[in-house]
Amino acid sequence: MLLKALYPKRLTASVYDLDWEKLAAHYGGVVFDIDNTLVPHGAPADKRAEALFGRLQSLGMKTILVSNNKEGRVRPFAESLHTDYVHKAGKPKKKGYEKAIRKLGLVPERILFLGDQIFTDIWGANRAGMYTILTEPVDPSTDEIQIVIKRWFEKPFRTIPEKGGK
């Protein structure tokens, strides 16, 4: 069902609040959106993001960034985190997610996806078979106008659907 693909499997206030040790016991890879998932929109990677990626990699988790941004934005960000990336991913189309899955070398069921938007991040990652976690935006005041509008339409899907429900 189309609507089911719009719901995240889990909600979190921040990628920095998760119990990564527990998640590492079940998942081998993590795919991240960048803007307003890891840092405010347009910001460079910061010490907090660098520490998180170091922690994930020390836990044996493979990491990758998937972004609709151009390589000029994504490559330096990825380099500072010592991780791979997919730029101009075309989210929510499955192609960019599938490229990330191939790069990670894992089955989708062993991969987490974290992002702050329903209609791009969550919808695409769900359709690609990953376990999706929706984050609150790091700094909504940095959103571009089209994202502000999309967030209004996303409100009904910023919940976890009941088991056995619609």
List the helices and strands and how they pair.
Layout: E1 10-12, H1 20-24, E2 29-32, H2 47-58, E3 62-66, H3 71-81, E4 84-86, H4 94-104, E5 111-115, H5 118-127, E6 131-135, H6 145-154
Parallel strand pairs: 1-6, 2-3, 2-5, 3-4, 5-6
Q: What are the main properties of this structure?
A:
alpha/beta; globular; 36% helix; 166 residues; single chain; six-stranded parallel β-sheet
Instruction: Report the total helices.
Output: 6
Oligomer type:
single chain
Mean pLDDT, as a whole number?
89
> Which structural class fits the helix and strand makeup?
alpha/beta
Shape: globular
Unreliable segments of 5+ consecutive residues: none
How would you describe what is shown here?
The protein has 166 residues and is α/β, with parallel strands linked by helices. 36% of the residues lie in helices and 15% in strands. The protein has six helices and six strands, in the order E-H-E-H-E-H-E-H-E-H-E-H. It has helices spanning 20-24, 47-58, 71-81, 94-104, 118-127, 145-154; strands at 10-12, 29-32, 62-66, 84-86, 111-115, 131-135. The protein has a six-stranded parallel beta sheet with strand order 1-6-5-2-3-4, with helices on both faces. It starts with 9 loop residues before the first strand and ends in a 12-residue tail after the last helix. The mean pLDDT is 89.
Quick summary:
With 166 residues, the protein is of the alpha/beta class. The protein contains six helices and six strands, in the order E-H-E-H-E-H-E-H-E-H-E-H.
